[in-house]
From TrEMBL:
The keyword Transport applies. Residues 1-23 form the signal peptide. Belongs to the bacterial solute-binding protein 7 family. Keywords: Signal, Transport. GO terms for biological process: C4-dicarboxylate transport; transmembrane transport. This is Putative C4-dicarboxylate-binding periplasmic protein. Pfam families: DctP. CDD domains: PBP2_TRAP_SBP_like_1 (cd13674). GO terms for cellular component: outer membrane-bounded periplasmic space.
Length: 331
């Protein structure tokens, strides 16, 4: 005799409910980023995955997608907010749509070196910025270093006048736009994955980036000169959505919080070494001359670029700028 339809349906539902309860699927964390694996961010992401595999096996599974293979920097934040990915480490230059205060990190010649950046990021003011996008469902978990930015072009850039009339690729940032306009150059915002082609085809003449990104994107093949200007920084905020992070079971979230701290320490310890190593790789490749500026030459760049601060002072907050400047003095 045929069972009535409702009994079959009820049995199926009961079994599938039981299935979910007994064999819970691990929580999947997709970690998408745009750089190569042999970079500070690439290594930080892999360390995060390794620690999760060791400590939360069966409960959490991390999938890392490097090199814009899943999303480019134009789509990654949208994907995060839509729940398509759960963690990204986005350049601090790419948040101005969501918060004006994080633009602080783009101000040219604000930080003397990465140690000063580190001191600021650890300060109460720096930590507060991690939470500045909570109302938009974005929560900052940590800062990850890449390093100091250098200028590059196909002509030697020694004085700010050398940059006049050139087009530079920038990350999407109003501050960086003004920074290049301040030296009479044109700034062209562009996603990271197309920079090599844009330089190769002459769509833009130059760019700014860390040695790590410069070498790993093979930009040395299409740029004859790097000027070691250390005029700004390229760092990241490791972010997730508040909904996702707060919705995790408390024991898993507290383990993940510890893993974030450890993978941050790893990424940040390695960042400077990666940049120095990639500087050496550029030298070894003999494609690109690295120009060292005299203190006077570097000062001329500072004089031209620093007036940009005034344009953003109100948006960013004068006190925040003061706190960042104070971090240049080692305690
Ligand atoms: C860039 O666009 O140059 C960087 O933000 C890429 C990155 O994530 O380091």
């Amino acid at each position: 005799m045929l069972k009535p339809m409702w009994i079959t349906l009820a049995c199926t539902l009961a079994f599938s409910a039981l299935g979910t309860a007994t064999a819970a699927e691990p929580i999947v964390i997709k970690f998408s980023h745009v750089v190569a694996e042999q970079t500070p961010k690439g290594q930080g992401a892999l360390m995060f995955k390794k620690l999760v595999d060791e400590r939360l096996a069966g409960k959490v599974k991390v999938e890392v997608y490097p090199n814009s293979t899943l999303y480019g920097d134009d789509k990654e934040l949208e994907a995060l907010l839509l729940g398509e990915v759960q963690i990204i480490a986005r350049s601090l230059a790419k948040f101005d749509q969501y918060t004006k205060s994080v633009q602080l990190f783009d101000l040219p010649f604000l930080f003397n070196d990465i140690a000063a950046v580190d001191r600021f990021q650890r300060s109460p003011e720096g930590q507060k910025l991690l939470k500045s996008m909570e109302s938009k469902n974005i929560t900052g978990l940590a800062y990850w270093h890449n390093g100091m930015k250098q200028l590059s072009a196909n002509k030697p850039l020694r004085t700010p006048e050398d940059a006049r009339g050139l087009a530079f690729r920038i990350q999407t940032s109003a501050v960086l736009q003004e920074q290049f306009q301040a030296v009479g150059a044109k700034a062209q915002p562009m996603i990271f994955s197309v920079v090599y082609q844009a330089l190769r085809t002459g769509l833009v003449n130059g760019t700014e980036n860390t040695y790590s990104n410069f070498y790993n994107q093979k930009l040395n093949e299409v740029q004859k000169y790097v000027t070691e200007s250390n005029h700004g920084i390229l760092d990241y905020m490791l972010i997730t959505t508040s909904d996702f992070w707060n919705g995790l079971p408390p024991d898993i979230r507290s383990e993940l919080d510890k893993i974030v701290v450890e993978s941050t320490a790893h990424a940040n310890q390695e960042a400077e070494r990666f940049n120095q190593q990639d500087k050496q790789h550029v030298l070894d490749a003999k494609t690109t001359e690295i120009i060292t500026l005299t203190p006077e030459q570097r000062n001329a760049w500072r004089e031209k670029m620093k007036p940009v601060w005034a344009k953003f002072e109100q948006e960013i907050g004068p006190d925040l700028i003061k706190a960042a400047e104070a971090s240049n003095k080692a305690q």
